[in-house]
Amino acid sequence: MGLIIRSSAIHAAGCYTTQPIAKGALVVEYTGPRIHKDQADIKYENSFVTYLFGIGDGTTVIDGHGTAMFINHSCNPNCETEEINGRVWITAIRKIAAGEELTYDYNLYDGEEDEARCNCGARECRKTMYSVDEIRQRKRAVSRKSSARKRKAAKTSEKAARQRSR
Ligand SMILES: [Zn+2]
């Protein structure tokens, strides 16, 4: 498959196909050494950019090395990733024309404070590369925090009311 790396409007460099790709085709494998998630956390503690791909139950990550690590995220992608017998493949989810940039939805998770803002330009862009599930969980965590604050506020005002009635 003819894939080239060149500058991209989405982010830095991107991966483009020089040939048309059929829907469902295995485009390229996400290659790189397999390391433990904890090992990756130490290795990339101070790195701004990482190319880690969680596989299986997420304790193992592929430390991206090769063509696939240049494929950018899009909220309206033309590819997706598929784990087949322990290997990760980028597969086409629609017919892709020659010259198109390849993209898949990163569905990021476990990113702590990092915002991971998205600039893919798709009409349905969710403005972040985090997965829909991850966004939902974060929202829930925030609302749990704010309801705890509200409970605390209610208790304080109860006490204030008691003091007033004395
Ligand atoms: Zn987007």
Strand content: 15-25%
State the strand order across the main sheet. 3-9-8
Chemical compounds bound to the protein: zinc ion
Write down the CATH topology of the largest domain.
Beta-clip-like
Number of domains: 2
Instruction: Count the beta strands.
Output: 10
What low-confidence regions span 5 or more consecutive residues with pLDDT below 50?
156-166
Largest sheet: 3 strands, antiparallel
What do you see in this structure?
There is one protein chain. The chain is α+β, with helices and mostly antiparallel strands and 166 residues long. The protein folds into two domains: 3-130, SET domain (Beta-clip-like, Beta Complex); 133-166. Helix content is 25%, strand content 25%. It has two helices and ten strands, in the order ββββαββββββα. The protein has helices at residues 37-43, 132-165; strands at 3-7, 13-17, 26-29, 34-36, 52-55, 60-63, 72-73, 79-84, 87-92, 103-104. The protein has a three-stranded antiparallel sheet, with no helix packed on it. Strand 5 and strand 6 form a beta hairpin. It starts with a strand and ends with a helix. The relative contact order is 0.16. Mean pLDDT is 86; it is low at 156-166. The structure holds zinc ion. Zinc ion binds at residues 75, 118, 120, 122, 125-126.
